[in-house]
Model the fold of this input.
Amino acid sequence: MAGADHVAGDHRNLSEIGHERLRRDLLNGSFFPGDKLALDALAERYGIGAVPLREALNRLTSEGLVERIGQRGFFVAPISIDGLEDLVQTRIWLETRALAESIRNATPEWEEGLVLALHRLVRTQRALASLGGEGTTEEWEERHRAFHMMLLERCGSSWLMGFCAQMMDQSIRYRNLSMVRADNATRREGAAEEHQVILDAVLDHDAPRACALLEEHYRTTLGVLRRVFEV
Done:
C-alpha cells in the first residue's frame, strides 16, 4: 500500500511540474496562439511522460490558457482584440471592488508589505533599465504580479482572489505575446510612476482615487496593446 501511495505521489509531482513548466512557457510567449501542443513533443521538451502532461494540459484548459478541440488534441488558446478588451474590463470590475475592500480592511502589516513589494519591483525595473531595458525577466514578472495581487489580498474573498489571479495570468500572456510581436515596443514609460500613485492613494485610504488610478493604469496598458494587435 505504501508503494502504491509513493507511485501516486510521484505521478502527482510530475503532473505539477509539467503544469508549472508549460504554464510558464505559455505565459512568456514561448508558444503562439493556435499552436498544437502535441504530447510527444511536450514529453521530449520537458522530460515528462504523456500521462502527467495530459493532466497538466487539462488543468491549463480549465484555466483558459489551452483549449481542447474534439479529437484533434490540445492547442494554445487564441487571442483577439475583443478578448483583450473583455479581459481588461472584467479585471477593472473585479479588481477595483477587491481593492476597495482591501483598503477598508487595511492593516499596518499589509501597508508595509505593499511598500516593500513596490520597492522590490522598482529595484528590478532599475536593474533592467541599466541593461538596456529590453524584454522582461521572470523576476520582474514575479514582483509585478506580487505587487498587484497584494493590493487585493485584504478583500476577504478567496473566490475573488482566484478569479483575479487567473485574469492576471491572461494579461501577462497578452503582454508577453505583444512584446514578441512588436519587438519589445510595448515596454512603456510611466508604469513605475503609475504604481507609485496607486500605492500613495492606498496608503491614504482613499479608495475612490486608488480604484480610479488602477482603472486608468489598466486602460493605458490596453491602449498600448491594442495598437500592437491591430497592426
Remarks:
- The chain has two domains: 2-76, 81-229.
